[in-house]
Design goal:
Layout (H helix, E strand, L loop, with lengths): L1 E4 L3 H16 L6 H14 L4 E7 L5 E9 L6 E8 L8 H12 L2 E5 L2 H9 L4 E4 L5 E4 L19 H10 L1 H16 L6
Parallel strand pairs: 4-5
Antiparallel strand pairs: 1-2, 2-3, 3-4, 5-7, 6-7
């Protein structure tokens, strides 16, 4: 297994579409499309986000992650994460986080104890209590020593994107077409 930074534009769009569809679910309304559009239209365009995949020995993607830079450009936050295969014995998404934690200044946000345990198993050992019960985990390579020196992560305002779709029907149709095309053309190998 190895980590691949998906740089090819068509493959990146396909991986991002699949990631959004898997994370939100296929019946989630506008949320997956709004995230897809916001990430492509803002974060990817500004080189503030990356799509990464864990691939098996046949180069087939088994896990996907969307990472966003923080405001200082020093760390990366796992915005979305999904395993594409489930065999009951392995956790491909956890393995992807584990590989990234060894190499990058990584931040993860765990909304509950189960998520925290999953990230701990992947090598995230430093934890801080954030707002609203969120646990913030940092990899050994992350430079922050506490919450006070942890820069804000760049994000996408899905509600603002959804509102912009109401005003700009052409943009909505364009992103919808790209999202569907991405799902249909998800690469079997990277």
């Amino acid at each position: 297994m190895r980590v691949v930074h998906v740089k090819n534009e068509a493959q990146r769009e396909a991986c991002l579409a699949r990631l959004c569809a898997e994370v939100y679910g296929h019946q989630a309304g506008i949320a997956p499309l709004a995230t897809f559009a916001g990430v492509l239209g803002v974060l990817i365009k500004q080189e503030a986000a990356r799509v990464l995949a864990l691939v098996d020995d046949a180069a087939q993607p088994v896990a996907l992650a969307l990472l966003a830079l923080d405001e200082a450009g020093e760390g990366m936050n796992v915005m979305q994460l999904v395993s594409l295969t489930e065999d009951g014995t392995t956790d491909p998404a956890g393995r992807l986080v584990s590989e990234l934690a060894l190499r990058a200044p990584l931040r993860v946000d765990a909304a509950n104890e189960a998520q925290r345990q999953r990230f701990e198993a992947a090598g995230i050992k430093r934890w801080f209590d954030g707002k609203s019960g969120v646990h913030i985990g940092l990899s050994p390579k992350h430079p922050a020593s506490g919450l006070d020196d942890l820069p804000r992560t760049l994000t996408v305002d899905e509600n603002a994107v959804a509102q912009s779709f109401k005003r700009d029907r052409d943009a909505f149709e364009d992103y919808k077409r790209r999202f569907i095309r991405g799902l249909e053309s998800f690469p079997t190998s990277l």
